Amino acid sequence: MSESTKFQLSGLLLAGGQGSRLGGRDKGLMPWAGRPVAEHLVELLRTQVGEVLISCNRNQQRYQLWADIVVGDAQPDYPGPLAGILAGLKACSGSHLLIVPCDLPRLEQALLAQLCELAREQPERPVLTRSAEAWQPLLAVIPKACLPALEQAWQAGQRSPLRWLLGENASVLELPAADPQLLNANRLEDWQ
């Protein structure tokens, strides 16, 4: 089996939250540079992956415009991003899942390429990002082979993506402190 058939990336945009810090607005549909941020981030994902999944729990018809597959959480009441990751790993066709949260509108293609390259170098381990002491566990690549471990952790009550990834011996892509690409846009002023 060739290297390219062993390592095939699917992409997952996490857009399943309640938007509670944005007054209930759907973060993935927030305008960024004149269009919904989900559309912008899906374009970035498509530079790296063969298929794009979007995890969302509302506005599924809107998200279907940009996704090959739309998934939702198996449990009601917005159980958190680990539920979206679990749904994405179950539904993806690739050997690895590149995960991007919808609250990183300043993300650039070069950073995604760097993350994917590290994942290719260590295909058996998840990869997540960190900027100085600030972890970014939702900007990650997870091998589909980790699905059984994630299902087991979920059943045992794990809800923290960071704790789960660190427990899986994840590699870390170290980024500069205060990298503007990693500004989590959680307040209305972050979207200006």
TrEMBL record:
Annotated GO molecular function terms are: GTP binding; metal ion binding; molybdenum cofactor guanylyltransferase activity
Listed EC numbers: 2.7.7.77
Q: Which reaction does it catalyse?
A: Mo-molybdopterin + GTP + H(+) = Mo-molybdopterin guanine dinucleotide + diphosphate
Q: Which UniProt keywords apply?
A: Cytoplasm, GTP-binding, Magnesium, Metal-binding, Molybdenum cofactor biosynthesis, Nucleotide-binding, Transferase
GO biological process terms, alphabetically, are: bis(molybdopterin guanine dinucleotide)molybdenum biosynthetic process
Q: What cofactor does its activity depend on?
A: Mg(2+)
**Which amino acid positions bind Mg(2+), per UniProt?**
103
- State the family it belongs to: Belongs to the MobA family.
Entry's free-text remark on domains:
The N-terminal domain determines nucleotide recognition and specific binding, while the C-terminal domain determines the specific binding to the target protein.
Assembly and binders: Monomer.
**Name under which the protein is recorded:** Molybdenum cofactor guanylyltransferase
Task: Tell me the organism's taxonomic lineage.
Answer: Bacteria, Pseudomonadati, Pseudomonadota, Gammaproteobacteria, Pseudomonadales
- Name the gene that codes for it: mobA
